[in-house]
Design goal:
Layout lengths: L4 E5 L3 H13 L3 E5 L2 H6 L8 E5 L7 H11 L5 E5 L5 H9 L4 E4 L4 H14 L1
Parallel strand pairs: 1-2, 1-3, 3-4, 4-5
Length: 123
Protein backbone atom coordinates (compact mmCIF):
# COMPACT_ATOMS: atom_id res chain seq x y z
CA UNK A 1 0.00 0.00 0.00
CA UNK A 2 1.33 3.43 -0.95
CA UNK A 3 2.02 5.99 1.77
CA UNK A 4 -0.42 8.91 2.04
CA UNK A 5 -0.07 11.56 -0.66
CA UNK A 6 0.00 15.11 0.65
CA UNK A 7 -0.29 18.01 -1.80
CA UNK A 8 1.05 21.48 -0.97
CA UNK A 9 -0.13 24.58 -2.86
CA UNK A 10 1.72 27.76 -1.85
CA UNK A 11 3.24 30.59 -3.87
CA UNK A 12 6.22 30.84 -1.48
CA UNK A 13 8.99 28.50 -2.67
CA UNK A 14 10.65 28.29 0.76
CA UNK A 15 7.38 27.21 2.37
CA UNK A 16 6.82 24.57 -0.32
CA UNK A 17 10.34 23.22 0.06
CA UNK A 18 10.31 23.12 3.87
CA UNK A 19 6.89 21.44 3.97
CA UNK A 20 8.00 18.90 1.36
CA UNK A 21 11.09 18.00 3.43
CA UNK A 22 9.01 17.68 6.61
CA UNK A 23 6.32 15.55 4.96
CA UNK A 24 8.88 13.24 3.32
CA UNK A 25 10.74 12.89 6.63
CA UNK A 26 7.73 11.08 8.13
CA UNK A 27 7.41 8.73 5.15
CA UNK A 28 4.58 10.37 3.21
CA UNK A 29 4.58 11.15 -0.49
CA UNK A 30 4.35 14.84 -1.37
CA UNK A 31 3.77 16.96 -4.46
CA UNK A 32 4.13 20.74 -4.44
CA UNK A 33 2.57 23.44 -6.62
CA UNK A 34 3.27 27.18 -6.80
CA UNK A 35 -0.29 28.22 -7.58
CA UNK A 36 -3.86 27.00 -7.69
CA UNK A 37 -3.72 27.15 -11.47
CA UNK A 38 -0.58 24.97 -11.56
CA UNK A 39 -2.32 22.48 -9.27
CA UNK A 40 -5.46 22.39 -11.42
CA UNK A 41 -3.53 21.94 -14.67
CA UNK A 42 -1.35 19.11 -13.33
CA UNK A 43 -2.37 15.65 -14.38
CA UNK A 44 -2.91 13.39 -11.40
CA UNK A 45 -2.32 9.68 -11.46
CA UNK A 46 -3.38 9.25 -7.86
CA UNK A 47 -5.92 10.91 -5.59
CA UNK A 48 -4.41 12.93 -2.75
CA UNK A 49 -5.07 12.11 0.88
CA UNK A 50 -4.69 15.69 2.11
CA UNK A 51 -4.20 19.18 0.69
CA UNK A 52 -2.19 21.91 2.41
CA UNK A 53 -3.30 25.16 0.86
CA UNK A 54 -2.15 28.77 1.21
CA UNK A 55 -5.03 31.20 1.67
CA UNK A 56 -3.61 34.14 -0.26
CA UNK A 57 -1.94 33.54 -3.61
CA UNK A 58 -1.80 35.48 -6.87
CA UNK A 59 -4.54 34.43 -9.26
CA UNK A 60 -6.99 31.98 -7.73
CA UNK A 61 -6.78 32.10 -3.94
CA UNK A 62 -6.98 29.15 -1.59
CA UNK A 63 -10.63 29.64 -0.67
CA UNK A 64 -11.62 29.70 -4.34
CA UNK A 65 -9.65 26.50 -4.96
CA UNK A 66 -11.26 24.85 -1.95
CA UNK A 67 -14.71 25.79 -3.29
CA UNK A 68 -13.88 24.33 -6.71
CA UNK A 69 -12.51 21.10 -5.23
CA UNK A 70 -15.51 20.65 -2.95
CA UNK A 71 -17.53 19.81 -6.08
CA UNK A 72 -15.14 17.21 -7.53
CA UNK A 73 -13.67 15.84 -4.29
CA UNK A 74 -15.84 16.84 -1.31
CA UNK A 75 -14.07 14.43 1.07
CA UNK A 76 -10.54 15.77 0.45
CA UNK A 77 -9.24 17.11 3.78
CA UNK A 78 -7.85 20.64 3.46
CA UNK A 79 -5.43 22.36 5.84
CA UNK A 80 -5.10 26.09 5.25
CA UNK A 81 -1.90 27.97 5.98
CA UNK A 82 -1.49 31.74 6.03
CA UNK A 83 0.78 34.58 6.99
CA UNK A 84 -2.30 36.79 7.41
CA UNK A 85 -3.60 35.57 10.74
CA UNK A 86 -5.38 38.77 11.67
CA UNK A 87 -8.17 38.18 9.14
CA UNK A 88 -10.78 36.29 11.17
CA UNK A 89 -13.20 36.46 8.23
CA UNK A 90 -10.93 34.30 6.08
CA UNK A 91 -10.39 31.87 8.94
CA UNK A 92 -14.14 31.55 9.48
CA UNK A 93 -14.79 31.06 5.76
CA UNK A 94 -12.18 28.32 5.53
CA UNK A 95 -13.39 26.43 8.59
CA UNK A 96 -17.07 26.87 7.67
CA UNK A 97 -16.29 25.38 4.26
CA UNK A 98 -14.90 22.26 5.93
CA UNK A 99 -11.17 22.91 6.41
CA UNK A 100 -9.56 20.57 8.92
CA UNK A 101 -7.30 23.31 10.31
CA UNK A 102 -6.14 26.88 9.72
CA UNK A 103 -2.46 27.34 10.62
CA UNK A 104 -0.50 30.55 10.91
CA UNK A 105 2.95 31.03 9.41
CA UNK A 106 5.64 30.58 10.49
CA UNK A 107 4.61 26.96 10.77
CA UNK A 108 5.82 24.68 13.55
CA UNK A 109 6.72 21.14 12.51
CA UNK A 110 4.65 19.50 15.27
CA UNK A 111 1.69 21.74 14.46
CA UNK A 112 1.79 20.72 10.78
CA UNK A 113 2.23 17.01 11.50
CA UNK A 114 -0.64 17.06 14.00
CA UNK A 115 -2.92 18.75 11.45
CA UNK A 116 -1.96 16.18 8.80
CA UNK A 117 -2.66 13.34 11.25
CA UNK A 118 -6.13 14.79 12.00
CA UNK A 119 -6.77 15.25 8.27
CA UNK A 120 -5.78 11.67 7.42
CA UNK A 121 -7.98 10.28 10.18
CA UNK A 122 -10.93 12.36 8.96
CA UNK A 123 -11.04 10.60 5.55
Amino acid sequence: MAPPLILVVDDDRSVRESLARLIRSVGFDVQVFGSAEEFLSAGRTRLPDCLILDVRMPGMNGLELQRELSVSDPDLPVIFITAHGSDEGLRSQALDAGAVDYLLKPLGEEQVLKAIDVALRSK
